[in-house]
Design goal:
By secondary structure, the protein is mainly alpha-helical. It has two domains: 98 residues, Orthogonal Bundle (Rna Polymerase Sigma Factor, Chain: A); 83 residues, Winged helix-like DNA-binding domain superfamily/Winged helix DNA-binding domain (Arc Repressor Mutant, subunit A). Helix 5 packs antiparallel against helix 8. The longest helix has 32 residues. The protein starts with a helix and ends with a helix.
Length: 193
């Protein structure tokens, strides 16, 4: 490195913001035009150059530059441009593959089942808190009514009332549903006594 450039790099390594800013302003246009030449995109070129400068500023204290600072930044910008071009190429290939991949066929029945599940879980979420807690302990945790009563410190009659209330509300959700076979499975699960 020349003495002047060595002084600038030494100042930057000591976190001299003014030296860094002067170097940036003096050389930015060269690096920007270089990046534009590779990327053909001014916004991306600006982003690349700024990222290189930010990295140099952040790592200045530990960075060892064997060539001139200008050459180092130039090489860093070119390398970042090449990496961006590779990334763009990979992204395009991935998009092309996705565009040519056939859409997975989803059975209308599966869509109905999923929609019904969503409706049911939404209805369960809308139950009053204690009612929902009792219902989930009964139907999802598999606890007996007496166990629920003991755990929550309520009477078994209250547990039964909560379950009955929950089942009535969920029955309304299922009443107009068209998917009879799933309906039967849901009824067996949720409405068992």
């Amino acid at each position: 490195m020349s003495l002047n450039v060595e002084n600038i790099w030494g100042a930057i390594q000591k976190k001299d913001a003014q030296a860094f800013e002067n170097f940036y302003k003096e050389h930015y246009k060269l690096f920007f035009l270089t990046a534009c030449g590779y990327l053909k995109d001014a916004r991306l070129a600006q982003e690349v150059v700024n990222d290189v400068f930010i990295k140099i500023w952040q790592e200045a204290e530990t960075l060892s530059i064997q060539t001139s600072l200008k050459s180092y930044v130039y090489r860093s910008v070119v390398n970042r441009c090449l990496n961006e071009l590779d990334k763009i190429k990979r992204d395009r290939q991935r998009m092309s593959e996705l565009a040519h991949r056939p859409e997975p066929y989803i059975e209308p029945r599966e869509m109905e089942d999923d929609e019904l599940k969503v409706r049911l879980y939404r209805a369960i979420d809308e139950l009053p808190e204690q009612c929902r807690k009792v219902f989930m302990m009964s139907r999802f945790d598999g606890l007996k009514q007496q166990e629920i009563a003991d755990l929550l410190g309520i009477s078994i009659k209250t547990v039964k009332n909560h379950i009955t209330h929950a089942l009535k509300l969920l029955h309304k959700v299922l009443r107009d549903w068209q998917s009879l076979p799933l309906w039967i499975g849901v009824i067996k699960f949720f409405f068992r006594r």
